[in-house]
Amino acid sequence: MMSGPAADRRPGRRWESPGVSCDGSRSSLPSSLVAVLELFRGARGASLSTPRPGLGRGVPCPLEKHSRCSHRLPGRWIGMVRRRWLVATVLVVVALIAVGCQRPQAQQPAAPAKPASQVPDLGGRTIHVATDATYPPFEMLDASKTIVGYDIDLINDICQLANCKLEIKSTAWDGIFPALQKGDYDTVISGVTITPERAKTMGFTDAYMEVGQVVLVREDETRINGVDDLADKSVAVQRGTTNAEAATNFQKQKKVKTVKQFPTFDLAVKALLNKDVDAVIIDNTAASGYMGTNPDKLKVAGEKFTSEGLGIVVRKDANDLQAAFNAALKELKENGTLENLYQKWFVEWKPS
Description:
By secondary structure, this protein is of the alpha/beta class. The protein has helices at 5-8, 31-49, 75-101, 150-162, 173-182, 196-199, 242-252, 265-273, 284-293, 319-334, 337-348, and strands at residues 51-52, 56-57, 126-131, 140-141, 147-148, 165-170, 187-193, 202-204, 209-211, 213-218, 234-238, 258-262, 279-283, 298-301, 308-315. It folds into 3 domains: 5-101, no CATH class; 119-208 and 310-352, Periplasmic binding protein-like II (D-Maltodextrin-Binding Protein, domain 2, 3-Layer(aba) Sandwich); 213-306, Periplasmic binding protein-like II (D-Maltodextrin-Binding Protein, domain 2), CATH 3.40.190.10. It is built from 11 helices and 15 strands. The strands form 4 sheets. Strands 3, 6, 7, 8, 9 and 15 form a 6-stranded mixed β-sheet that branches. A 5-stranded mixed β-sheet has the order 12-11-13-10-14, sandwiched between helices. Strands 1-2 form a two-stranded antiparallel sheet. It is elongated and about 120 Å long. InterPro entries: Iontro_rcpt_C, Solute-binding_3/MltF_N. Pfam families: SBP_bac_3. Residues 126-348 form the Solute-binding protein family 3/N-terminal domain. GO terms for molecular function: ligand-gated monoatomic ion channel activity.
């Protein structure tokens, strides 16, 4: 009985070429491999079925294309050649079926697409920023007179998300909010505490940091252990701050003897170091900054006695800026940037 392609050519059954998968469906074997199998099938058919004079089924002569075959092979050689063709054909078929039946390697799932930013696009506009660069580590001048600090890094990160450019200038605290209202600046970022009174005339972003007021004293101070020990003491503050408001209220309540107000906290701390005052009322984060710039000279007496949020200030009608800044702050909080900035400026930063 015939086997192979010839035997499969019966009515109702169509013989397929070797590009067939294990389950009978068409496979995706490479065309080059299919061609090789077809070549072997054709060669085998020729060797086993082509009659030769005097030999019955003969072996093709390698030189037949160019000259007549002038020799005849013995019968045992014919059988050996047939077996070799058969074995070679079977090996090729098995190899090709094995290749075709290999399961594709499991592909690694694609990484989830990064969610698109929800920060409103400010269209590349320039934002004029005011800051009082005397408040380390929030804002200060480095050795090259460049404004650096936590707030500066923060507003830069915000503008990267909101697609805006920055022009930052240091402005005296006394005139910083009037300059904003007049239109000289678009925003103020300078460790500004969010208060109901300020919110009546200015817009604020959501709080980007929670702080509390503390009592800063000299390192060798032993008389003051907290805010309750200031009744007969003099304190210094920066004018126009919530710290000044707290000190003034304490004075009205006879909890502080004298309040001295300065244009900057730099001058207030200098007065403390010079023993012109007994303490400075200041936010805990800024107190850490001044202790850093004056190592082994200052310390905090007691615990925080308030809890307040710091925000970025915009004009009351600047809803687009407020929305963009809030969205950016939300994203920076979620992706860990705010935590990294705090680590950089309030833990790792050391004054040069």
